[in-house]
Amino acid sequence: MDRTPAAGVAMLVDDDADENFVNERLIRSAGIAAEVIAFENPVEALAHLERDDRAPVDLMMVDVNMPELSGFEVLDRHRALPDEKKARKVIMLLTSSLNPVDIERARNYPEIVYTNKPLAVETVFQILKGQGEM
Q1: Under 8 Å CB-to-CB from 74, ≥6 apart: which residues?
Q2: Buried b / exposed e across 76-112, counting CB within 10 Å, b at 16+?
């Protein structure tokens, strides 16, 4: 399998610092993205997307269950951003929950991929390949 970075910038949004650390290491070691930025606070992540002086975000991974904003609330606010501020291609909603309500709710977001934790390298590459070139 070709391990050329599929994304320029990957953004992680998870209130669990350990989860961000593990996912960042996984993304870097697998060569999924050239750069990884991580946020424990979803409001700060959304503020980062609104900045004009940042590199485009190609891959965004958001935890479903966070205290300040849920992953679904982050997605709603992301949808409201101007197109040039949004993540370019892939938005993965990560969860450790098998809650059927969350699974059903995710169906209202056709732009996302809903996947379980822990993040798997092969899953990310398959999803990126399925969405075409970045």
Answers
A1: 13, 42, 45, 46, 62, 66
A2: ebbeeeeeebbbbbbbbbbbeeeeeebeebbeebeeb
Q: What angle do CA 64, 108, 131 make, to 5 degrees?
A: 80
Euclidean distance between CA atoms 77 and 131, whole angstroms: 22
pTM over 0.90: no
Asked if residues 115 and 123 have their Cβ atoms less than 8 Å apart, the reply is yes
Per-residue pLDDT tens digits for 4-40 = 666 789 999 999 999 999 999 999 988 889 999 999 9
Q: Span 7-130: which CATH code?
A: 3.40.50.2300
Contacts of 29 (CB under 8 A, 6+ apart): none
Consecutive H or E run containing 41: none
CB 91 within 8 A of CB 62: yes
Write out pLDDT tens, residues 56-84. Answer: 999 899 999 999 999 999 999 999 999 99
Q: Is the distance from CB of 37 to CB of 66 less than 8 angstroms?
A: no
